[in-house]
Model the fold of this input.
Amino acid sequence: MFSELANISIFKGLKSAEIVQLLNSVSYHIHTYEPESVIAFSSDNSSALFILIEGHVRGEMTSYNDKDIVISEIHAPDTFAEGFLFANKNKLLVNIIAVTKAKVLTIPKDELLKLLNKHTQILNNYLNITSNRFVLVSEKLKFLMFNTVRVKLAIYILDLEKEFPDKKSFRLGKTHEELATLFAITRPALTRNLLSLKKDGFIEINNKEIKIIDREGLIQLLN
Amino acid sequence: MFSELANISIFKGLKSAEIVQLLNSVSYHIHTYEPESVIAFSSDNSSALFILIEGHVRGEMTSYNDKDIVISEIHAPDTFAEGFLFANKNKLLVNIIAVTKAKVLTIPKDELLKLLNKHTQILNNYLNITSNRFVLVSEKLKFLMFNTVRVKLAIYILDLEKEFPDKKSFRLGKTHEELATLFAITRPALTRNLLSLKKDGFIEINNKEIKIIDREGLIQLLN
Done:
C-alpha cells in the first residue's frame, strides 16, 4: 500500500520511506467501501483530506428532481474533495460515491496542516493540487455559460488553436471522456457533436488531429 | 497604506508593524491603474499574488462574439486571482479590469511561497482564501447547470430552507447584487424573477424574510 502512495501528487518528490515516516507522525484512518456506496454526502462538512489508495470514485451533484450530474471521476492513487477543506462554508457540495470497491485513507485537517507547516515539498504539492482543481472548475464554469454542445466545442477548438499559433492542425488535448466531463454532457453526445462539426465543414479530423477549415463559421456559431 | 493592509484577509491576525516587516523582507511592486484600464489579461500567466489596496476591480470572461460576462467584483482591501497561482495551467482565464482608479500591490509567487513557509498564520489565511474562492466557483457551477433564473432561484431557496430547519422564514443571505453575480445574470433580472415567484404564490417576502408557501410547486419548477 505505501509504495502506491509514492505515485500520488500530494507526496510527489518524497521517497516511500519518508512517506511511511510522515504518516506515522500523524493520525490517519483507512476505510474500504463497496461499489455504489456513499463515501461522503454533499451536506457533510469537509474535515479531512481524502486519499484514494485503491479503486475509482465519482463526485456528483444531486438536484431536487433527482437528476444527478457527474462532476468528476477520480482514479487511485489520487486525493479528492481537498478544495473545500479550509473554507468557511466547507460543505462538500457533491456526493462522493465509490464506483468500484474503494480504499480511502483520511488525514484530519489539523494533522494535514501540521504536515504543510513542516514540509515545504508537501506544501508545494498541496498548493499545486488545489490550484489545478480551481482551474478545472473555472474552465468548466466557462463552458457551462454557453448552452449548446456545438458552441462549447467551437469555443474549445478556437481556444486550442490559439495555443498552437504556428500549427495548421493540433491534437484535441483531452480524451472524449475528459471533454464530456468538462462540458457536463455524455460521451456519445460529445462524439456526435464533434462529428457534426466535421460533417458541416467547420473542421477536419485526421488521426486525432483537428484542423480548422471555416474559422468564421465557428465564430458565427457563437451568436 | 500599511494600516489598510491589516484589514486584508491574507494578513488577518497580524499587527500593522509585523506586516510592514514582512513586506520589507520580500520584493513587491505597487502599480496604479486608471478606471477601465486592464490590470491583467485572461491569457496572462498568473505569476504573482495581487493585493488590491485601493479601488474596485472586476473579473470578466470574454467570448469570441464579444459578449463579456462579469465573473466577480473585488473591492479593496482584498486579494484577487490567487486561485491560479500554483496551477500547472496557470492562465488567468478572466480579464481583470479596474472599475475605479485602483492601486495594486503584487508579490511574486516565489516570494509568496517564502512567506507561506515561514509564517503559519499567513499559510492558514492563504488556504482559507483560496478554499473560499473554490467554494464560490463551485457554487456558481451548480447554478449554471440549470437554465432559467426561476429554476436557479428555486434551488437557492430550497437549499436555504435546509440551512434553517426550525424556522418558518429566513433571510436571503446575499444581496440581490451578490445573487445576480452567483447566477451570472443582471440584477434587474434577478429582482424580476424573485418577484414573479412571489406573484405566482410560491413564496412570500416580508421585510427581506422569505417564506416558502408552495414547496411542491417550487420542486415542480425543476422539471
Notes: The CA atoms of residues 6 and 16 of chain B lie 6 Å apart.
